[in-house]
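Review form for a predicted model. The reviewer records the input and the model, then writes brief findings.
Reviewer: anonymous (R2)
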Amino acid sequence: MSAKFGARLLNENLSLNVSKNVDFLGWYKQLVTKSELIDDYNLPGFYILRPWAFSIWESVQKYMGERFQEIGVKNISLPLFAPFMDKLEERYEDLFLNTYFLTHAGKDPIKHSIAIRPTSESLVYSDFGRWCRSWRDLPFRINHWSNALRCIENPIPFISSREFLLQEGYSGFANREESIDEVYKMLDIYNNIYSDLFAIPVLKGRRSEKGKLKGSDFSTSIQIIEPNNGIGIQAASSTNLGQNFSKKFSIYFDNPKNPGEKEYIWLTRYTLSIRSIGALVMTFGDDFGLILPPKLAPIQVVIIPVGLDNCRNEKDKFNLIKNIKLINEKLKESGLRAEMDIRKEIILDLRPNQNFVQTSNLPWILLDDHFSNPVFSIRGERLSDTIKSLFYYCTIKIFFFIFMFQMKTNLTIGRFLKGVPIQLEIGLENLISRQIPLNVRFYNEKCILCLDNLAGELKVLLKKIQSDMLKIKTKELNNCIEMCLDWELFISKLERYSILLSPFCGHLKCEESIESMLNSKGINSKLLNIPFEQPKDYFGKKCINPKCKEKVEFFALFGQSIC
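Model under review:
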């Protein structure tokens, strides 16, 4: 085994071998696995959420929980099984077809099969009526952090997996005006989550008649655009359900002005799922791995000791590690999420004059103060000072060199893949000069900071990275959306995966006609949403559908969608 072969083997296991611009979905699926966000499970379409991904989701939960607490949203927990799905079948026709059902308890069949929740509406609304009987109980706001299951045909990790984590919020009001205000209030919270936490610009808009939740008054959504591949991702939604669902589930309160008269409650629903992490990967990931915004990164700064094998003696090595530990502790005390990257495989226990080294393929080696006088312990057998001892020493030195070469490559590739914002590289000479070199993942460049005010300078740099990520992606978003008024040009651009803003009449039949014509040409594009920010100088134009004669109501966003 040579060092060259070892490095190639390591690169095959860690680095990406699919380009984002060549095979977008292939690149994405490889990245979420190799960056340790998920791992495959024995059941197709189901995935193990690894600590790196779950830490990101916990940050989302914390941020959203604080905003919900400010406006009085209370958390609840609901069962996994969903009765009364028959009441929602006509409104969730497609969703009902993707629902898993419990049919047996052990070997015995269940008389009436029970749905495993694809969404929590039936669970909430079946009890909502018992919770709200008086106008004094309103407004009513509850939130449910849950997991849901759907039998999706072509699952994509995070984006559309068969089991996924999500946040579902439900509110009830005495009048329509308050329910409408709630819809936009929650949409603004989602907008702030993406811009402030994820550093991703979004497009807020209204969903079309075809895209809205069936039975609702209207639905709003947040769209994230991946500009390089012209892909739209629905990142969150907030819906006004009107009174249709409250009538279906008998959710009402007694009218205080007319005792005995029942008033049906106005309901809203708002939701964000772990799809947000998939959108983050697609937006910022590159051919080297993830790029995480500092506010969301589980680790903001990683410290890697350099020059350990060049230290003159074990005392220098010990002093280097000791100082790095002190730097790491100070960074943590300042509020930064910092970590030393000293793997157990390299250094298991550091004491003056001693260093233990272990690899998966090598025996234990105990090195004393002078490496020229090694003491070997292989399988508990003490070897004498013989030719056999010299043979073992030379063999171990060769394999140790190969292993250290691989581990250095591992540290670099691994941290690039996982998207840690800043990587510090500290050696003895840096401690002496007080100048600390670092790699910034987003800029993909190196710079130097002063050790004396390292925590303060890192905070400034992290804040700048977060701001620049949002600015650059906002500019890319604005540049990628094209105005299109001609049908032939509309077809041509969508074939090249463009994101288009085109005039639209707003009618359901017209939208279905547009999608049908696109599908007949093999174009997997659709109406994404109707942006709140509309162009001012283009009204009076003809609907983009050449068969439509209706008046244009607004401009709609068209493009590819993978969810």
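Findings: The chain has three domains: 17-284, 299-353+407-463, 481-561.
Further findings: The two ends are 46 Å apart (CA to CA).
Recommendation: see findings above.
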